[in-house]
User: Fold this.
Amino acid sequence: MQLRLIPGIQKRSTNLKVLVAVFTLSIILVLLSLSSFQISLSQSLISESEILPIVIPTFTNHFKYNIQFLESFVKNVLDFSNLLILFVVSNNQEANELLHLIYSNQKLSNALKAQKGGLYVIPVFELIQKVDKFNVVDNPIIFDGINVNEESLLKVVETFKYQSLKKLYGLKYLDTILPEYKYALIADSELTCIKKDTLFRDAIEDYFNRPTIKLFYEDFRHGQTESVAEIVREQMEFINVDISELPSPTTYMMQDQSWFVEKDMFHEYWHHIESVKSTTVLRRVHDIKGGIFFGDLGYRYYLYSQRFRKADKYKFVNIMDQFKTQKGINEAAYNLILKYRLKNGWRGAFEDFTWFPRILTKNLVDFLNENKIAFFRNDMNEECFLRRLSLAVDSFRYQACSDGYFPTSNTYCDYKKEHDLELEQSSKIDLQQEQDKLSKKYTN
Assistant:
C-alpha cells in the first residue's frame, strides 16, 4: 500500500511546525530575558579595574606585621595592583621608617611599582589637620590644658582612642585621595592573606552583594559583663543613642568581617557624630569618658540605631539564635555550644572560633560557608584547628592574630594528633550520640 500526503494536511502540518518553532523561540527568548534580568540583579558591584581601599592604623612595633601583610597580599592576592593601601602612623619619624622598610624590600618595591591605587603612609595628626581643615599654628587646640600636636596627641586621648582616630580619620581622608570609592576595609596590622589566587574584591562582593547583609551581635549578659558593658556604654555615648535601644547593656556588635565600610553610611555616621555637639570628631573622641573606646566599632552601633530605616539592607542577628536555628543543631548541641561559650568567656568575641566544641566542627564549617565568613582570628595554641577550618571553608582567606603568624606548611601540625582530626571525625561518628554524651557531661 502506498501512502501519500494529502495537500491540505501537509500544509497544516507545515503551519504547525512553524507555530511550534515560533512558540519554542518565544520560550527561549523569555528564558533568556529572565536570565538577563537575574544577571542584572546579581551583577558585580565592583568592576575589575576599580580601586579598592584598605586603611590600616599602625606604629613602630607593628611594622614587621605590616611587611608580612604586604608580602602575603603580593603573593596571594590576584588583584593586588588594584588596591589602595593607607597606613596611618603616629608621626613623621614612623612614616619614614615604614617607607624605608617597604621600599628596601625588593619584591615589595617591584610589586608596588605596578600598583594602580598607590601606597600612602601618613601621620594621624596630619590627617586630622587635612580633614578638619585647620592649622595648629593659627588655630591651636587645647585639651586638658595641653596644646595638642603630633607629639602630645597620644597623651591627651590615650591608646584606644588614639587608634580609633587613626581609623576614623584615615577612612575620612579617602574622600580626598580616592573620592570615587564605594566600599573600604579597615584592618588591623596583623592581617594577612593565607590563600593563593585570592581576589580581594570577592570578599567585598560576598559581603555587600546580598539581598540583606547580616550583622551579628552577641549578648554577654552571662559573663564578662563589666568590660563588655563599658565598651558598649562608650560606643553608645559616642553616637548619642540611649543604651535601652539595645537588647541588653552587654550587647556586643561583632566585627565578624573585620570592618567593612559602605562609604555613604560612613558619611552619615561621621556627620552624625559631628552634629551631636556641633564639634569635630577629634573633640568627640577626646570627650568620651572611659578608656575602652573603639570608634570603628561605634559604626556598627550606629548601623544598629538605623536598623528600621535600613531594614531592607541590614539585618541584625544574635549569633546564638543563629546557631539555635542552624540545620543539624538540635537542643543538646545548642546547649553544648552555649556551655562552651560561657566557659570560654570573651576570647575575642565570636571572631575567635577556637572555643567552639570540637565535636560540632562540621556544623561550624556549615555556618561559616553559609555566611561566607572571610576573616578569622588565629590563636597560636590552635593553629592546626584553624588550618583545618581554612581548608574546609573556601571564603576563609584572611587572618589576624596577636603574633601576625599563620603556619605555611604541614610541618607545623602533627596530623596524627587527635585534636587535629575534627573534620574527619565529625563525619564518621554518631554525632547525635556524641552530642548527647557531651551535653550531659557539661550540664551536670
